Amino acid sequence: MARVLLYYAHPGHRHSHANLAIQAEAQKVTGITQVDLYAEYPRFNIDPDKEQQRLLDHDIIVFQFPLFWYSTPSILKEWQDLVLEHGFAYGLDGDKLQGKSMMLAVTAAGPEDAYTKDGYQNHPIRDFLVPLEQTARLCKMSFLPPYVLYGALRQSPEELAQHAKGFTALLAALRDDSLPAETLKLPFMTAETFTHKQEG
Questions:
Q1: Which pLDDT does position 197 carry in this prediction?
Q2: 143: which residues sit within 8 A by CB, 6+ positions away?
Q3: What is the dihedral of CA 81, 87, 88, 90, to 10 degrees?
Q4: Dihedrals φ, ψ of 153, to 5°?
Q5: pTM above 0.85?
Q6: At 167, which helix (H) or strand (E)?
Q7: In sequence order, what E strands does 93-161 have?
Q8: What pLDDT was estimated at residue 194?
Q9: CA-CA to 167 of 20 to 30 Å: which in 66, 116, 146, 147?
Q10: Number of continuous H segments (helices) and E segments (strands) in the chain
Q11: Whose CA is closest to 9, among 61, 56, 85?
């Protein structure tokens, strides 16, 4: 079994349409560590030593967050700045995360067709996640295909439940080292593609 650490970051959690439902289901997954960054650090007073130890204690690091202005919520940037230190995560002797994996679970307000070269976002969603992908590579980590919910603000309760169910299945698969190899070749995963891969 892999040791999975799930970081959740949503500055307006109680007002969330999608992430509130997704996190509630994720909390039912046993055998993984879950951290709500805004709840733990409401004044952004992140403890680098504590967070570095968390990283050392786990094999797969998952960040769940809504896409904010094509990037992460601010606390995740603060977390990166303080925790991923030179000599720990990168640079001279900075090999402490080598061999671990990073994965993102992202919600986007726009529909899937918006995230194409012909859509109004002009780029696929992976383009906006390149800074995090490169962060993983600099830290000698593997970057797994992100789990994405498009049109997050327009999802029905049934659609949100399906996405949340897919996410819990994904977390369990990461924990159990049972994620199908072909899934890792995808540019991103959704509830539909993950369910298809699991059933296929």
A1: 47
A2: 101, 102, 103, 132, 133, 136, 137
A3: 70
A4: -80, -10
A5: yes
A6: helix 157-175
A7: 101-107, 142-143, 147-149
A8: 60
A9: 116
A10: 8, 6
A11: 61
Rounded distance between C-alpha atoms, residue 133 and residue 113, angstroms: 22
DSSP sequence for 14-56: GG-SSHHHHHHHHTT-TTSEEEEHHHH-TT----HHHHHHHHH
N residues, the chain: 200
pLDDT recorded at residue 17: 85
Integer Cα distance of 89 and 8 in angstroms: 21
Over the chain (200 residues), the average pLDDT of each successive run of 10 is 97 87 95 98 98 98 96 97 98 97 97 96 97 98 97 94 95 95 92 59
For the packed helices 191-199 and 157-175, what is the interaxial angle rounded to 10 degrees? Answer: 50
3-state secondary structure of 125: helix
CA distance 13 to 73: 12
Name, in order, each residue with C-beta under 8 angstroms of 171's C-beta and a sequence gap of 6 or more.
4, 6, 26, 29, 32, 62
pLDDT of residue 63: 98
